[in-house]
Amino acid sequence: MQDRPTASELLEAALAAYVRDLLPEIPGEKRYMALMVANALAIVGRDLAQGEALLQKEIKRLQELLTLPSSEIKNSDLLKAEAESLNRQLVAQIRTGAFDEPDAARDLQAHLVATTAEKLATSNPKALRGKEEA
Amino acid sequence: MGVSEPDLCQRLENFLADGAGARAAKLLELAPLAGGAVQENWRLDAELADGPYRGRQAWVLRATAPAGIPNSHSRAEEFALLEVARAEGLAVPKPLFVCRDPAVFGRDFFIMERLAGDAAGHRLVRDKDLDGEALLHRLGTELGRLHRIRPPRADLGFLELPEPTPALEAVHRFQAQIQAHPAPHPAFEWGLRWLAAHAPEPQALVLCHRDFRTGNYLVAEGELVGLLDWEFANWSDPMEDVGWFCAKCWRFGNAREAGGIGTRDAFYRAYEAASGLRIQPASVHYWEAMAHLRWGVIAVQQSDRHLGGQLPSLELALTGRLVAEMELELLALIDRAEGERG
């Protein structure tokens, strides 16, 4: 077992030091790149913190939508493979018109909005809040 | 690459002298310009010994980028489009010389005049002094004039008419690209299903720019200076350009609906007056949904250029994580259209 800090804690410390101490020293022409690095690290941090839980929720919804028996996957390595396999089945059904009827379309639309919102909660929470400048 | 490479420098000078009808050309500066993720733009300063371009010239060299994006024209075709737009009196940089010989620069390119001004969308939408409504009047007028160009045109013979309609052709093209992609994209698949079922008939086929948006026009002192990036232009539904311009993904985080700089009303009024066409709101809404799908597919392709190792870049890598923003707006636009239908 690895000693603390955990990967998340270490990343958080590194990101805080980078933003507080290094970013202000970075000259103008490199600033855009420096901000992209901070953005990428922040995404990784959120992914580590909530990625698995969000994937569990997506899998649960996909199983309902595809009327499959719900099964909880404990092994985190299998989560991604399961989500990908379920999404492949969903795509195949969309193509055959299985969600064209209004009720099915509404269920699918709700699932897709929820999944997309979950992706943004990791990749760009600002976009999710619909934060816009007047 | 730059003026320090003697062979390249010599080849370019010979090409410029030849094109400009001068005895000799001296390359003074060649440096990459910001922007142009798909094509490469180089700032080129040259001194011509004599002829019509005698003296110091401020030009742009526009070259095909390695590992480009599908569906874009060659530089020679983009050059021809600029010539047509220029002849119709549109505000575009004057195209000067085109080079199809890869021995000169390694890939084809053309030379055009370099216009002053700034194209950066994120700066433009935050410019407190900008008169957005006046600028939209100019932009709507320019787009309207562009849409007066109709097929057939012998000088644009390389363009192909969309089959069966502009919307359905786009749907089929993106379907092929998404279905060939190794990862499943359910939101895009559903978006395409909806777009296929609701494809509008165009009121006319016109020359569309197909990348007409904030970030692709130059502004100097609040005035429109030039429309850039003609590589995707083609015959299409005029509402495609209107939808692309107004789409949320091209507002740069600003709430103003027309390109992030002002009201749809100002843009629409000028457009209708100049084009002789009517704005069809349902069609514009449809093309806004298509815009987010298109942007999303491009984002997938851009991120693949990084992941596949063709062009390792943090910016391209992060573009892959923009896909969800396009999906969310695509779904919201479908939702709104369905809501209005009842």
Describe the structure.
The complex is a heterodimer of chains A (134) and B (342). With 134 residues, chain A is mostly helical. Chain A has one domain. Chain A is 75% helix and 0% strand. Chain A is built from five helices and no strands. Chain A has helices spanning 7-22, 28-65, 76-95, 102-123, 125-128. In chain A, helix 2 packs antiparallel against helix 4. Chain A is elongated. The N and C termini of chain A lie far apart (50 Å). Chain B is α+β, with helices and mostly antiparallel strands and 342 residues long. Chain B folds into two domains: 6-113, Phosphorylase Kinase, domain 1 (2-Layer Sandwich), CATH 3.30.200.20; 121-341, Aminoglycoside 3'-phosphotransferase, Chain: A, domain 2. Chain B contains twelve helices and nine strands. Chain B has helices at 6-20, 75-87, 102-105, 121-124, 132-146, 166-180, 186-197, 238-246, 264-275, 281-307, 314-319, 323-341, and strands at residues 25-32, 39-48, 55-64, 95-99, 109-113, 206-208, 217-220, 223-227, 234-236. Chain B has a five-stranded antiparallel sheet. A two-stranded antiparallel sheet of chain B has the order 6-9. In chain B, strand 7 (217-220) and strand 8 form a beta hairpin. The interface between A and B is medium-sized, with 34 and 29 residues.
Supply database-style keywords:
heterodimer; A: 134 residues; mainly alpha; 5 helices; B: 342 residues; alpha+beta; Phosphorylase Kinase, domain 1; Aminoglycoside 3'-phosphotransferase, Chain: A, domain 2; 5-stranded antiparallel sheet; two-stranded antiparallel ribbon; 9 strands
